[in-house]
Amino acid sequence: AYAIVGVACAAMLESDGLPFIAQSLLTAAVGLLAYKALKTQLVRERPYITHNGIVAAAAPLDRYSFPSGNTMHAVSFAILYSSHMPFVIWIMLPFAFLVAASRVILGLHYPCDVVVGAVLGATLAYSSLAVFA
Fold first, then answer.
1. The whole model's pTM is what?
2. Contacts with 129 (C-beta within 8 Å, 6 or more apart), sequence order
3. How far is CA 11 from the centre of its chain?
4. Which one of 33, 37, 54, 92 is CB 3.0 to 4.6 Å from 107, fit for a cystine?
């Protein structure tokens, strides 16, 4: 979903499209590195592992839950894309909210995992916007 919206934004940005794609990819890569480092250092098991009453409704990518990488990327791209093309906020904001909610509903994350993921995503996006200004 991010790639589709990102490519559409890049196409509409015409000559600014390539720098936009580069910024998006670099921001995603930094986010991935930060999220992986935090997960391997903090090793918080997912809710369905810790609590018998919670069933994972989807297969997780790994054993650990903190922070939510899906939420981090959803929020990061929502802010980043919307800063370049303000009208996409109407697509990206509801999508980011649904991603965040789904992580808890699916039994894969605690609410605080999602909140921290959202804060990380916002921090990444605003940092990227400052660097690429």
1. 0.90
2. 79, 80, 83
3. 22
4. 54
Pull the structure tokens for residue 128: 């990227």
Q: Which of 118, 106, 36 is nearest to 72 (CA)?
A: 118
Calculate mean pLDDT across residues 10-33: 86
Encode pLDDT of 75-105 as tens digits: 999 999 999 889 989 989 999 999 999 999 9
- Assigned token pair, 59: 């297969």
Crossing angle of helices 17-42 and 2-13, rounded to 10°? 150
Non-local (6+) Cβ contacts of 80 within 8 A are 23, 24, 27, 125, 128, 129
Rg, the chain, Cα only: 15
User: Residue 67 has which token pair?
Assistant: 């922070």
Token pair 């922070």 in the structure block, residue: 67
Q: Residue 36 CA to chain centroid, in angstroms? A: 13
At residue 18, the 3 state secondary structure works out as helix
